[in-house]
Amino acid sequence: MAQTTVSKFVQAVNENLNLIAELKAAVDIDSYYKIAAAYGYHFTAEELHSELSQQSIEELAMKINPGIAPRAHIDAD
Description:
mainly alpha
């Protein structure tokens, strides 16, 4: 199965420290998508939600929210 854009993005988040730092500084969901787009990742909220819903809370915390505080703006619901 081909890897989707959003799954490639999630993988990049695991590997790219600059991307991680920028995402941690995002203040809202629009900023989050703009940062992803600047790195060449274009996807919808539905695609992001679908990808993230396949992962455990622990996996999400390590990939998307490596900081201490809750990141409510990332929740695409």
